[in-house]
Amino acid sequence: MEIFNAIVDGMNWLLNWLYYITKTVGIPNYGIAIILLTIIIKMVLYPLSHKQMKSMLAMQQIQPKIKEIQQKYKEKDPKKMQQKMMDLYREHNVNPAAGCLPLLIQMPILIALFRSLISFPYVNTDHASFIWVQNLSDKDPYYILPILAGVTTYFQSKMTTSATDPTQKMMLYTMPVFIAWISSTFPAGLSLYWVVFNVVGWAQQYYINKQAVVVKGEAGKS
Questions:
Q1: For residue 185, which of 88, 194, 195, 205 sits 20 to 30 Å off, Cα-Cα?
Q2: What is the pTM of this model?
Q3: Which whole number is the average pLDDT over 36-61?
C-alpha cells in the first residue's frame, strides 16, 4: 500500500512538474501536461510496445496457418494441434503472450493516474480545464472524450486484428464499447490520457506495419 501511495505521489509531482513546463512556455494547462505525460510513458514503454506490436502483426500474418492447423487437428488430436501451433510460433518467432506485459505495466499507471486525479493538488484550478471540460478531475459532461477513447481503441485494435478469427473480431467491437462506457465513469483526465495513448500507439503500429511491408517486399525481390 505504501508503495502504491508513493506511485500516486510521484504521479502528482510529475503532473505538476509538466504543468510548470507548460507555464514556462506560456500555455499553462493541465490537459497539455497529461498529453506530455502520456507521450513520456509511451516513450519509456516503447521497447516493450515495439516487441508486442511486432508479435501481434506476426500473429495476424500467420492466422491462416493457425486456422488450418485447428481445422486439421482440433477434433482428431488436440494435443498434436497444440504442438503444431507451438512449432508455428517458434518458426515465426511469435509469442502469443507478448501483449500481456505492456498491459500489466499499464494497469498500475492507470490506477495511479485515476487516484491522483480524484483529489489532485492543482497549483491553479483555473488551468485544470481542457477545451470543453471545466475540470479534468470531473467526468466529461458531453462524453466526447469517452467516445474518442472507444473510437481510438477500435482503430488501433483493427490494425492487428485478424479478419478470420471470430474471437478477435468479437473483441474488436466489444472492447471499444467497454472502454467508452468505463471512461464515461472516470475523470476526464484519464480519458484524455487513454485517447492520446491510443493515437500514439496507432502511429507506432503504422510505422511497424510499414516497416514489415518494406522488409517483405525486399525479401520477395531477392
A1: 205
A2: 0.79
A3: 80
